[in-house]
Amino acid sequence: MSLELKKSIDHISKERRIDRDVLIDTLEEAVRSAVNKKFNNKLDIEVNFNEETGDVEVYQFKIVSEEIDDPDTEISLEEAQKVDPNVEIEDELGFRLHVENLGRIAAQSAKQVIIQRMRDAEQEIIYEEFIERKGEIISGTIQRRDRSGWIINLGRTEAVLPKEEQIPKEHYRRGDRIQGFIVDVKKEGKGPQIILSRSHPDFMAALFRIEVPEISDGTIKIMGIARDPGFRAKIALLSRDRDVDPVGACVGVRGSRINKIVQEFKGERVDIVLWSPDITTYAVNALSPARISSITVDEEDKTLEVVVPDSQHHLAIGRKGQNVKLASKLLGWKIDIVTESRYGELYTHRQEIEHVASVAGISIDQFYAAGLTSLDALQSASDQDLLQLDGMNEQKLSDVRSAVNLLSRDSSPKEESQSISAGNQDQNLQEASQPAQDQNQTAGDDFEGNL
After folding, report:
1. What range does the domain containing 165 cover?
2. Residues 186, 231: Cα–Cα separation, whole Å
3. Given this model, what pLDDT does residue 309 score?
4. Largest separation between any pair of C-alpha atoms in the chain
């Protein structure tokens, strides 16, 4: 041992960023292990690293005894007094052991301990470094592929990009430079395992924070992200400054900002949605570019029934249901898309069933639970099926049949020859229906204004 050992410790500590005290403790432990192995753990020893000389000093301790049973652990009073004249029986006396010639096996054992402890210390440092970087974007080089996914070289260590965290449309090759989002860091037997993702919504959020200063400084807040990785995404934004437009800020001059993000995701379309505390307004924004006619909100079941013009149905649904699926994920609500024509049919059917239910004095929910949602279904139902309804009896069954027949006749096309002969009756009917039409128009205007 010499000053060369001290220089080696300083060099390793600096190069591998391992605490110097950890290296010294490792060295002392390695020497202690080697000495114990050589002497079969019989000696009482103490190991210290001398900072001035760079030597590892080993001291053996013996008990001063009148009778010597074990020379390795005991020393006679006469021999002890040659070292220390003031020593007494039962005192403990230390002697310097020379460990320069520990032997090949002991030296190899010490070397293995040092290497393992250094590796453990380095892995712990890597773990602590990357656990603090969880939620950040990191760059690396694609190195190889194994069963778990692609292995990414990060320089000092490696990370894995699992199959489920990859973008389906992307193809990777060895040597490619790639960015990933650190979603997790785990402690494993072989060292820390760093899990990367390119499909995680937070990866997109992190890129927006990098590219859009208004998001990084908090002027614009990301309220939610829904992704179909590689194909389409929706990001909801809220501006805390009335003078800052979230859409304009994220798009940038001539699309400079959004284009960088789209390029990173290999052309994944990104819809920027204005967040709103009002669920109907938020839903209209999320379903854009489709036009919405009306929305019915079910707060209890968190369900939205969205009515759209027939021509807008495919746009609202999107390719393979993509638009409505992402909007539903963004809002956290279930969304049912219904065309205006279909909604009209459903509304008419419901009015008819409500009328029949009121005649029978039975809840409409019972009819719907039994699958009786239209006049055709009621006409097709057998008497036995209808009598299964809670509260139904023979008299009510007769009333139901009469009401169904009456409604069926009223809904059938009328002959052109049938008309109201009294002219004043036409006028009265028009005057009676006019307030209802005005009321519907006002309600429609108010709804559109709310949207």
Report:
1. 140-199
2. 30
3. 93
4. 144
pLDDT of residue 331: 96
Assigned domain for 180 exists: yes
Binned at pLDDT 50, 70 and 90, residue 109 comes out as low
Alpha carbon 79 to chain centroid, angstroms = 73
CB 49 within 8 A of CB 133: no
65 with 100, same domain: the answer is: yes
Statement: residue 52 has pLDDT above 60 = yes
Instruction: Identify the CA nearest to 386 among candidates 376, 347, 398, 374.
Output: 398
User: Do 321 and 451 belong to one domain?
Assistant: yes
Whether residues 146 and 264 fall in one domain: no
Question: The domain spanning residue 400 has which CATH number?
Answer: 3.30.300.20
pLDDT band, very low/low/confident/very high, at 439 (cuts 50, 70, 90): very low
Q: Are 353 and 406 in the same domain?
A: yes
Strand, helix or coil for residue 142: strand
402 and 307 in a common domain: yes
Tokens 């393992």, residue? 116
Q: Which of 339, 335, 290 is closest to 316 using CA atoms?
A: 290
E-assigned strand segments in 275-382 = 294-298, 303-308, 334-339
CA Rg value for the chain? 41
Task: Please give the Cα distance from 336 to 410 (Å, whole number).
Answer: 31
- Is residue 228 within 8 Å of residue 199, measured between CB atoms? no
Place of tokens 């959020």: 205
Report in angstroms the alpha-carbon separations of 141 from 52, 150, 180, 247, 261: 44, 10, 11, 34, 20
Domain-embedded: residue 132:
no
Residue 205, pLDDT > 90, answer: yes
β-pair partners for 226: 234
Please tell me whether the peptide bond between 289 and the residue prior to it is cis, using omega within 30 degrees of 0: yes
Predicted confidence (pLDDT) per residue in 392-435, tens digit: 888 888 888 888 788 777 655 543 333 333 333 344 333 433 33
Question: Both 243 and 350 in a single domain?
Answer: no
* Distance from C-alpha of 304 to C-alpha of 323, rounded to nearest angstrom: 15
Domain boundary pick from 160, 183, 199: 199
CATH classification of the domain holding 189: 2.40.50.140
Nearest to 285 by CA among 244, 227, 234, 249: 234
Taking the whole predicted model, whether its pTM rises above 0.85 is answered as no
- The secondary structure of 254-313, three-state, reads HHHHHHHHHHHCCCCEEEEEECCCCHHHHHHHHCCCCCCCEEEEECCCCEEEEEECHHHH
User: Where is 192: in which H helix or E strand?
Assistant: strand 191-197
